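Page header: ASSEMBLY MODEL / two components / 518 residues total.
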Amino acid sequence: MEFFDCNASYGIYSVPPYKRADSVDVLIEEMEWCGIHRAMVRHAAMIDESPIVGNPLLLEQMKPYPNLEPSWGILPPQTKELGTVQELMSSMKENNVKALWAYPAKHRYLLNSTTFGELLEEMTYRNIPLFLERNESCGGNEWAVTADFVLKDFPKLTLIVVGHGSWGEDRFFRPLIERYEGFYIDTSRYELDGGIADFCKTYGPYRLLFGTNFPRTPMGGAMLTLMHADIKEDEKAAIAGGNLERILSEVKL
Amino acid sequence: MKNPSEITKEFVKNGLSEICPVIDTHTHFGPGQGIYFPKLTPEQMIDTMDRCGVKYIISAPHTALVDTERGNMVAAGLVTKYPKRFKAYWSVNPNYPDRIAKELEKFEDFSGFVGFKFLSDYHRIAITDQRYSPVLEYANKWKLPVLMHTWGNSGYDGPALVEQVAKKYPDVIILMGHSGYGQWDKAIQVARDYPNVYLELTAAYSVRGAVEAMVEGVGSEKITFGTDLPWFDPHYGIGCVIFARIAEDDRHNILHRNAERLFGS
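Prediction written out in full:
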C-alpha cells in the first residue's frame, strides 16, 4: 500500500508545534521513518505569514524532493495580492500547483461566493480541490457551517476538510458527505474506533483521504489505523493514496 | 520504513504483536454524550481488542461518569461476563457526595474493580476538594489506583493539583489520564518527583514528540497506555507509540509491562 499524505506542512510557525519541523528535511525524514511515500505539502509561512510569502517559498524549498506535491494558499481576488484569478491560474499552471488552501480566520476574509465567487467558479471548472483546516472558523462560523455555505453555492466544488476533531464529528460531516458529492475529509484525526470501516460500509472508500496532520500529530497513528481498518485492501489503497491521486489527476490547469 | 523496531514491524504486518501485547488502562463503555460510536457492545469492543492485540482493558462506563449507582453496576456486569478481557474502575461523581460512603461499601462487594475513576473537569469539582477525600483516604489505605482525567492548566485537575493530591496521599497510585494534556513539562515533573504518579497516554500520544519527551523526562516505567475506547481506535495510539523514537524496552513498558505490574497480567 502506497501512502500519499494530503495534510502535511513544515516551517516556522508563530506558535510552533510541540516538536518542530522547521525545514522540509524534517518532513522527509519522518516520511522515510514511517514509510510514507508522497505528501502534498503547504508551508507554515503561507499560514502564519501570508500566501504571498509562503507560496513561492514552498516551491523553492521543495525542489529537491520529487515526492512532494505543492499546495498554495488563497486570498480574496479583489485585493489582487496574488494577482487576478486568471493570473493565479496561470501561475499555478506554470508551477504545477494543483491544490489550494483557505484560511479565512487567519487571513481575515469570508470564504463565500461574494468574496470568492470568481475563483470558486474557476476551481470548479478546473476541478481544483480546495482544502480547509477544521479549526479555521469563518465569520464566527465553525467549519461545518462554512463548508455547507460554500457547497450550497458551488455544489460541484471539491472541498476537503482536514484534521477534524478527534472527539468524534461524524454527526457534522456525514450530512455533508450525503449532500455534496465533492465533499471529502482526511483521516489524520479520524481516530474513532471502527470509524473508517463504518464510514466505508455506508459511503464507500472514495470520500476519505489519508492525512497525517504533520508536524502537530505523529504520522504513525493514522497510518496504522488505516493499515488495519476492517475494510478491503483495494478500499485501503484508495484512501491511502488513490483518491488523492485521482483528484489531482483530474485537475485541468 | 526506516524504523527498525521489531515490535513496529509486527504491528505493521499483522495489526498486533505476539512479542508485545497491549493493556489499555483507560477505556469507557456504552453510549456517551456528544459522539457516535459504531462499536458499542462488549463483543464489538472485544473484536477491537483482538484485532489490535489488546489483552484486557480497564473501563469506566459512560453512564457511571454521570449516574454512578447505575453505571458502576454496568461495569460490574462487564467484568462478571468477561473477566479476562474487562477490568473496571469504580467511578465517582463528587456532585453527589451523599452517595459516596454507600458506594465505597459496595465497592468491596464486587471483584473485577481495580480502583477508582475521577472526571473532575467534567464534574467541575477540583480533585483537591474535600468531597473526594473519603475515596482518596480509602484508596490510600488500600494502596489502590485512581485514574484521574487530567488536563493542562485546569483548575479542576491540572498537574499542579495532582501534585497536591500525590503529596497528601502517597499510597494512592495516581494515573494522570491524558498526562495533563498540554502542560507537558509540569506533568512530567510531577510524575518524576512522586513515585505514586504515572502518566497515562490517552490523546496525549497524538501530540508529536510528547511520548519521546515523557520517556526522556520520566522514564518509560512511569507511563501507561490508554485509548478512551470506544472513542479511539487502539491502532491509532499504538501507531503513535511504536513509531516514536524510543527504545524497544520503552515500547514494552508503555504498552504492557507497567500495566501488568499495576493491574496484573
